[in-house]
Amino acid sequence: MEVNVLNINGQETGRKVTLNESIFAIEPNDHVLYLAVKQYLANQRQGTAKTKERSEMSGSTRKLGRQKGGGGARRGDINSPLLVGGARVFGPKPRDYGFKLNRKVKVLARKSALSYKAQENAIIVVEDFDIETPKTKDFINITKNLNVDGRKLLLVLPKENKNVYLSARNLQRSEVMSASTLNSYKILNADVLVVTENSLKVIDGILTK
């Protein structure tokens, strides 16, 4: 699959790049995509929810009523879960929601996500560029030139670029990532991928090992 290379002014450079068919033209596997997205979202959870059990409560341990004959439950002391303000039975505890996925599964998921974007013609290749000083206005002009303003955009760079990142940080529907940190969730979550030429080489190197 050949794609025209554009410059940041939205003009064709006259060059074309061929997208690697083993990455951008495979039969997408929906199940591994589900697992990869599930793992990403699970890793975002803080897992800090916590309630106190009976042994952790501070309060009198005096028995409130006799064991039998009261006509109700044997509730014990004031920390009983049966009472308002008492402990909670089997409440949440701090935990890690993350789980392991094999490397080959994650690689297949990224290939599947990229193949979906290629099928939707939602991949734009631009020549490598830089922004001299961080300016949101400059980044907005680039998105307008590429006709992607107003769409959820993911810009993939070959390596971290602080000026480009800072220029896009204030834009709610734009995100900048390096090719080495690209993941399935970010790919699927974007309406369009804007990928630089050298980023394609990095992606090929990572996903075709």
From TrEMBL:
The keyword RNA-binding applies. GO terms for cellular component: ribonucleoprotein complex; ribosome. Pfam families: Ribosomal_L4. InterPro entries: Ribosomal_uL4, Ribosomal_uL4-like, Ribosomal_uL4_dom_sf. It comes from the Bacteria. Residues 45-77 are annotated as: Disordered. One of its GO terms (biological process) is translation. GO terms for molecular function: rRNA binding; structural constituent of ribosome. Keywords: Ribonucleoprotein, Ribosomal protein, RNA-binding, rRNA-binding. Forms part of the polypeptide exit tunnel. Part of the 50S ribosomal subunit. PANTHER family: 50S RIBOSOMAL PROTEIN L4, LARGE RIBOSOMAL SUBUNIT PROTEIN UL4M. Belongs to the universal ribosomal protein uL4 family. This is Large ribosomal subunit protein uL4. It comes from Hoylesella marshii DSM 16973 = JCM 13450. The gene is rplD.
